[in-house]
Amino acid sequence: MLDLRDEHYPINLELVMGPIMQKFREIETCIECSAANLVQVAEVFYYAQKAVLHPTAPLFDQESQSLRPRCIRALKRIFVLCDHDMDSALNDDELNKFQIKCFNAPLSPSEIEDVKRVVNEKVPEGINHRGLTLKGFLYLHAVFIEKGRLETTWTVLREFGYNDELELQEEINLPALSERAPSQSVELTSAALDFLKGIFSLFDSNKDGALQDSELDELFSTAPENPWDEAPYDDAVERTEQGDLELSAFISQWALMTLLDPAQSLAYLRYLGYTGDPATAFRVTRKRSLDVKKKHTDRHVFQCFVFGPKNAGKSALLSSFVGRPFRNNYEITSNQCYTVNSVEQRGGIKKTLILHEIQEDNVKEFLSSKDSLAACDVAVFVYESSEEYSLKRASELLMDVAREGEESGYGVPCLLISAKCDSQSYLKEIKETKMISQAMKIGAPIHINVKENNMNGVFRKIVNAAEQCHLNIPETEQGINKKHYRQLVNCSLIVASVGAAVAITLTAYRTYAIKKAASS
C-alpha cells in the first residue's frame, strides 16, 4: 500500500517483486496502489478485469516462454480455416479477410508488408513467396502475448468459437437431437461421411489407404487432443498388421463416437474443418417401437449388447470382430469395452455393427435403469458349449433382459451364441437349448469356434436380427399372460362398444318408428 509506506525508506518495487515473479511465473501483473489517496486504483481494476477476460495461462507457458499445445492447436485450426486456397500460407487477400472477420478493419498494403518484414526478420520460415505460413502466424501471436496484448489473441480465438478452455463452446442447437427419445439413435449423414472420407484421403500422405499413428495425430492436430486415445475408442476398431487405420475402420470409429456422444462427434467434425450446418451432419433414427410396428428399420448402425457368464467367450467374440488373434488367457474387461466394424450383407450392402460387452457382475445394476435397453438394437447371450452352468447362467441373463424389456417397453431381439464349440458339448445342451428357444420364442443357438476362426456368419446373423426387429423378441410367462389379458380386455371393450352402438341404433329406430306412426 503506497499510503502505508515510510517515505524515509523508499522501496524499489521491481527489486522486491522481480525475484518473486520469476519464481512464480503464474503472477501476471504487480502494481502499487493506494485506495486512501486514490493512486492507481483504476489501474488495479483494469488489470484484474484483463486477467479474467484475457487470461495468460491457457495460452502461454511462462516457464518455457512458449505457446501452450492447446493454443497452438486452436490457432492452427484457425489458420487452416482461413487458408481458403489450401496452399499452407495466408496471402494478402486471406490476411485481409481474417483481419476483417476478427477486428472489423482491413490492413493496408503497407501494414501487411510491415507484418511480413517483422516475421521474416525473426522467423525466416514464417514467410514464403505465397504469404504468411503457420510458423509465422504462431510467431505473431506469441509476440502479442509476450508484449501483453493478450486481448488480440483472445479476440481471434473467441471470434472462431473458442471458450476459456480453448474448446469450441457452441452447443448443439438441433431439436431433433436434444428432444430425441431414448430409443432413437444418431448417425452420420452422407454429407458428413463424404467430408470424413476427404479428410482421410488428405492426411493419407503416402496414399497407402491407411493412416499411420503419425498421420492420425496430424489429422487431429487442429483439435484439443486425439479423442481416440482413451476408452472406449482406443481399442475399438480393426487395424492392419502394421497397426494402421484403414478407411472402413476410420469411418466405423466415427460411427461409434456419433452413437455414444453426438455432441463430441460434432465438435470434432468442426475441429477438422466441417463448416456446414450441424443439421446436415447428423440424422436421427425412428423410435425402435415404430420400427417394430412397421417390421422394418432404416438404421445403418446397430448396437449389440453382449451378455454372458464369466469365461464364456464374450471378449473373444469382440476381439474376433476386429480381426485380433485368439488368446487362451482370460482377462477381465470393463463396461467400456466396445468393438465396431462394418458387416457386409447380401447384395453387398454394408451396415455398421457395434458390440458392447456387459460384464456379468454389472448386469443387475445395468438393468436397474429404466432406459438400460433403449440404446440396444439386438442382444446376444454367449455361453460355453461344454459347461452346463454356463448355459444355465446365460438363460437366466436372457430371462432378466426379457423381463426388463417387457417392463420398460424396450424389448429387443435376442440370440443365443454357443461358443467354444471345439470342446465336447455336454449331452443335454441340444435338448435344453431347444426348450429355451421354444419357451422364449427365439431362434436356435448360433454355434461358433473363435479359436478355429469358425464364426458361422455370426455377425451377419446379428445384423439380420437387428434389421428384423419384430422377430426374436423373448417373452416371459408373465409377459405372455399380460398380453393375453390385454387382448381379452380389448376384445371386451370392442364387444361393449359394438353393443352400445347397436343399442343406440335400435333406440333411434324405435323413436323414428313411433314418430312416423303418430304422424300418419
TrEMBL record:
Pfam families found in the cross-reference section: EF_assoc_1, EF_assoc_2, Ras
Keyword Transmembrane helix applies: yes
Alphabetized UniProt keyword annotations: Calcium, GTP-binding, Hydrolase, Membrane, Metal-binding, Mitochondrion, Mitochondrion outer membrane, Nucleotide-binding, Repeat, Transmembrane, Transmembrane helix
Signal peptide (UniProt feature, chain positions): none
Top-rank taxon: Eukaryota
Membrane topology qualifier: Single-pass type IV membrane protein
InterPro entries on file: EF-hand-dom_pair, EF_Hand_1_Ca_BS, EF_hand_assoc_1, EF_hand_assoc_2, EF_hand_dom, Miro-EF-hand_domain, MIRO_dom, P-loop_NTPase
Transmembrane segments: 493-512
Localization, UniProt: Mitochondrion outer membrane
Residue span, Miro domain: 299-468
Main location: mitochondrion
Domain EF-hand: residue ranges: 191-226
GO molecular function annotations of the record: calcium ion binding; GTP binding; GTPase activity
UniProt entry tagged with the keyword Nuclease: no
GO CC annotation terms, alphabetical: mitochondrial outer membrane
Family the entry assigns: Belongs to the mitochondrial Rho GTPase family.
Listed name of the protein: Mitochondrial Rho GTPase
Organism name: Artemisia annua (Sweet wormwood)
